[in-house]
Amino acid sequence: DDFVAAAVEEGVDFRSFDQKTGNYNQFWIVEREFDNRTSLIVDPPDGKMPPMTAEGAARQKTAGGTYTKQTGFKSADELGPYDRCISRGVVGSMMPVVYNNGNQIIQAPGLVAFRNEMIHETRIIPLDGRPSLPTNMKSWMGTSRGRWDGNTLVVETKNLNGKTGMQGNGMMLIPSDSIEIVERFTPLSANILQYEVTINDPKTWTKP
Prior knowledge:
With 208 residues, the protein is of the alpha+beta class. Helices cover 12% and strands 23% of the residues. The chain contains four helices and seven strands. The strands form two sheets. It has a four-stranded antiparallel sheet with strand order 4-5-6-7, with no helix packed on it. The protein has a three-stranded antiparallel sheet with strand order 1-2-3, with no helix packed on it. The longest helix has 8 residues, at 2-9. The radius of gyration is 19 Å and the shape is globular. It starts with a helix and ends in an 8-residue tail after the last strand. The relative contact order is 0.15. The mean pLDDT is 83.
């Protein structure tokens, strides 16, 4: 197709990265430009991630799945949720990775649905003001509730199980199950949607 033809013309090498295993090749990676920054921290104002708590730092030592541990798994529980195609989590699903970065937003009366291309998860977000679920009902994607702030869709998510992270397809920067997430989706033009996310987890980071 035209995409492949253009990539070949630009000299993209479609051979596998690892000839022994036949893993993903450049065909998947030319989907986006890696040299362009896709996001940045705007709060705290210094642009740096806040320090982790001792508990949060300790939790990271067992995170990563196949990102940090390549052999010697003793059980499936040692593999991350992305390895097992369970979930990339709320933030992990929104952050761009190597390929399959598509997210579809569907608006219907009283709700918005987010469909993620990778792992094909769907978040149903009611907009009718209903309360969140009881705090003991936790899940991979949590409980999301939405509201409009002018032209911005604000989504608050609670009741996460603390098993999916902010990076590495949801397998790194693992929070606690006390995390609360606030997302803001603002259309800037017909083709640009601004995505802002605030993470509040005092058991993992010293401030939001």
